[in-house]
Amino acid sequence: MIRVGTLIVGAGFAGLAAALALRAQGVDDFAIIERADGVGGTWRDNTYPGVACDVPSHLYGLASHPSPDWTRVFAPGAEIREYLERIARDEGLDTRIRFGTALIDARWDGDEWAVRTGPGHIAGPPSGSARGNRIPGAAGREDPASCPEEIRARHLVLACGRLTEPRIPDVVGLETFPSPLFHSARWDHTQDVAGRRIAVVGAGASAVQLVPALVDAGAEVVLFQRTPAWIVPKGDRVYGPEERAALREPSAAAHLRDELLREGEARFASRSGDRAAAAEAEAVARAHLASQVADPALRAALTPDYAFGCKRVLLSDAFYPAVASDAVRLVPSALAAVENGALVAADGTRHAADAVVLATGFASTRQPYAPLVTGEHGRSLDAHWSDGMRSVGSTLVHGFPNLFILGGPNAALGHNSAVLILEEQAAFAAALITRGLDVRVSAQDEAAYTREIVERSTGTPWVSGGCESWYVDSRSGRLTLLWPGTVAAFRERLARVARDLLEPSAVLTSEGALS
């Protein structure tokens, strides 16, 4: 058995931010477990062609670790992974991480968390109904009973990420498809796409990056689009040598980050339903589509029929030209079945393909780690969240003492960098852990925060914009993924939670210190 003050689960952005925040508070009694063989989280797992961030590079990083080395305005996925690896190495965190160690079970025993770990992948229910083992990540998990180890920790930080388990669509006969079939987040690099017909199922954030990259690689693409997305210009470009040299000056990099932060905060109005701002942003998206797609029938198929901001707004300058090219056949319908090797769309059309890529997103509203965590009343986190995730300050949960969840309930953003929220949560957790208190929140406080989220989101496109999105839990109709406010509003709200837990005079500073 191992005993540690704080156990962090996950070594992506959230896990590293938590470790650095503890260090900043003078806490060194912590350990990190990571089920994979390296750091990086979603940027380690997603290696599909074209993968990149849709937040500007100089804002998509930890404030304490600015990087002058970004090569593009929007960093490719591999650069982000390398950035996180560099932080772990330079800060000596890589020696504190137990790689290949998955969370199997965590239980509050009255005084501390008893955590069982095992090798390999997280031991939870498959994400979807693949009905077969050929889809990496959907089956073939390690036996949770093999070589378990117990870790005892007073505080438990779940930094597991919200986009970790691929969502497999419930398609009749999917497992009978005779050729390669895999999820975009489990890319099969043994497959040569050049000269082959690749079916891409889904038209969200991953597909918008993937489809142009497949076309560039010489593939023919059949794109199954259940719902089109609002897409605005991205404006990506390479940073020139002079720009990169200038950004090595800390004040220049800080100024750019502040400018990007303000631009992101300004986008909140258009995403949250401000009529004038939404109309202006929608006009930009429609003009972008019109300028890149000449065929009126194709434009109509690519035009959303729901409110701007209802689903994630995407950025791309390459998707529309790719779809308009002879290399892509758009099927404006979901994949409904696989029959005798043919892909059958919901509109009844049949299509052939040499391989199928499921760009169908992740199990987001029902987090894979939730069934593995049991609180003080013998109830799992998954059961506690049976009608959708809820919390206090998007970080603490009633009935789960000394548990901090980063990137969980209402901790995503639709207008700005989610790393900003993770940093606030990490500083908040570190400040409370430093005080040495048992951190508990009441059922009343959790219900009040849940009502607050409902009130903040009522009337917004996220819940009443006429679409189905991963922001909303279908079991309750509540907004459970997004924080329905600005980054500044989240910072202020989390500070109020800290004051309520400690004393009226306590103030959570931007550095995470309570004074």
TrEMBL record:
Annotated protein name in UniProt: Baeyer-Villiger monooxygenase
Keywords: Monooxygenase, Oxidoreductase, Signal
Source organism per UniProt: Microbacterium barkeri
Signal peptide (from-to): 1-24
Statement: the UniProt record of this protein carries the keyword Signal: yes
Region (Disordered): 119-146
GO MF annotations in UniProt: monooxygenase activity
Pfam families attached to this UniProt entry: NAD_binding_8 (PF13450), Pyr_redox_3 (PF13738)
SUPFAM superfamilies cross-referenced by the UniProt entry: FAD/NAD(P)-binding domain
InterPro entries found in the cross-reference section: FAD-bind_Monooxygenase_sf, FAD/NAD-bd_sf
